[in-house]
Design a protein that fits this description.
Elements lengths: L1 H13 L5 H14 L4 H13 L3 H11 L1 H6 L1 H10 L3 H10 L5 H13 L3 H14 L6 H18 L8 H4 L9 H14 L2 H17 L5 H21 L3 H9 L9 H13 L7 H9 L12 H17 L3 H13 L8 H15 L4 H8 L2 H4 L4 H13 L3 H17 L3 H7 L2 H13 L3 H17 L6 H12 L4 H17 L4 H11 L4 H4 L9 H4 L5 H7 L61 H8 L10 E5 L6 E5 L15
Antiparallel strand pairs: 1-2
Helix pairs in contact: 1-2, 2-3, 3-4, 4-6, 6-7, 6-8, 7-8, 8-9, 9-10, 10-12, 12-13, 13-14, 14-15, 14-16, 17-18, 18-20, 19-20, 20-21, 20-23, 21-23, 23-24, 24-25, 24-26, 26-27, 27-28, 27-29, 28-29, 28-30, 29-30
Organism: Pseudomassariella vexata
GO molecular function: 7S RNA binding; ribosome binding
InterPro entries: Signal_recog_part_SRP72_RNA-bd (IPR013699), SRP72 (IPR026270), SRP72_TPR-like (IPR031545), TPR-like_helical_dom_sf (IPR011990)
Amino acid sequence: MSTAAANLASLLRASSIDDHEEVLKAANAAIKASKSDLEAQHTRVVALLKLDRFEDALRAIAEGGDKLEQECIVEKTYALYKSGQLSDATKVLESAPLSSRALRHLAAQVAYRAEHFQDAAALYHELSAEGEGRPGEENDLRINTLAANAQLEWNGLGNLVDEKERQPAGEDLEAFETAYNAACACVARGDLGKASFLLKRARDLCEAGEDLSEDEKKAELLPIMVQHVYVLARLGKETEAAALQKAITVSEIPEAPTRAVAQHNQMTVGADARNPFLTQRLMQSATSLSGNDVLFEIQASVLRRNRHALDLQTQKFRGVASSTSTLISKIAAPTASTEIAGLGVINAASHARLEAGKTAITQILPMLEKRPTDVGLLLTIIQLYVQTKNLNPALSLLETFLKRLETASTPDHADVRFAPGLVAIVVALYRLQGRQNSILTELAKASAHWRSNQKESATSLLREAGVQLLKSSNSDDLASAGATFESLVSSSRHDTTAIAGLVASFATSDYTKVEPYLQKLTPVERLTAGTDIHGLLDSGVASVANTASQSKKRAAEAEPERTAKRRRKRKLPKDYVEGRQPDPERWLPLRDRSTYRPKGKKGKKRAQDATQGGAVKEEETLELVGGAGAVKVEKATAGGNKKKKKNKK
């Protein structure tokens, strides 16, 4: 027993990173000689972790008993984390005090992988504030903090990120890891131009690095290139994205999640000109993920939507409708989840068979009666109405849905009622109709709700609501704006927009609330420096036409400006003789003048038939047969012309 222990001790003193198998053999020999040797058991666990045999390490910890488990908290947590058992790893961390720095690092990593990004960011900030780490640890903390911030941005929690950390700093451009993570945060915020620049910077830094081998450079470059393909495609640079995608060898990507994303990029870039049935076969052969090699939920949801979209293109309408309906039916109450709302949109598209316009509205509108709480279906119908320029039914549907939520007493219904996305849609529809008072009423109600039920995701809504309410001349709206900015400032004293709004709200009514924040704002003198005030005053105030009061009819074409017409000189007749009396019948028509004589044979006969001075026609009355009445006819003359009929032979 002593010999095995001595051999193990000597081996540990002389061990390097390449002889973990020898350490494991010596530890097993020592344990075989003495099963109660705690040091040998601990050494075996570490050696198994070094060899990436995580399941074996967990089994060894369980066989060692409670004493070994208490001593190997870090090792057990790490093994659970690497084997994908995140819930069990979290339970171990909750039962143990996070006293050691290594355990807090591990806790932050477990929280990050379990998508508890807020907890991960808090732990990284705490470790950075202590500043007592090993050489190089500060750079690792910076890299991991940027990664946690990027994930917060992706999940709509960017308001939790400090304003100073949201924009890339100069030090982030000095290493390819920090430049890459800063680029990911820009992608999440939608700042794709800056993200493309940072990704190119990360590639250049990685290729120029001297402390990496060629294989290590290739392994680090591939994820950067995969992300850059996505950014270029989003920017509409399809040619550049396709060229960069061809430079990526998917099979050489070591990480399974990155390899799966690269395969989907390969299928989606230039997919418009590709056979959807062939693309579907490629998607079915994509890398399958399991264990710890799984995508984050935000990535997995995008890939699920890609699969549904491809199924629609291949006309699998019934299958898509059935699968999405099953998932939607599991959510009884209305929800503002983007994942569930996206399923509602896909389900509507499957029922409409990818039709649009009035045809699609006719097909999917009856579905709203069966699923009145489906936010995705509702928004799809509203979008179709807006596309057909029919705003009234769109707004009517949305208002009915919102009133139904208001009547419910549960807090979840109220949160959905005043979800920032729904509030933004109803405000946009009101603005299209020029209903400014309705906009202010909606924003005031939303602000009151989120001030009493503070959630970080509603910060942007509160900020915009305060700005709009501040423009009103109504005292109630101004009071609501002031309360909104007070709530924002209390939660974040670095929000310059909220501070400026607070000052503007109470500058004329309550100076005591304004005074503590005046030093944090830019002085007016600096803002107006270089402005010609007298010139502006002399120019006057520009008046802007109220677009809401304008008619919706098509404006008439502008008429050309009429010029003053010159009066023509009055001309006299050619036969005019000065002093001669003009014809008194010159204003009568020719046929009514006394000098009028009809021309031609027909005219002479017409003159003879006239009653004045002409022959009077004789008439006689003939009785009809049967006493049916009588008619007057012209009396025949004695010498009338009679033509004999020729007999036909």
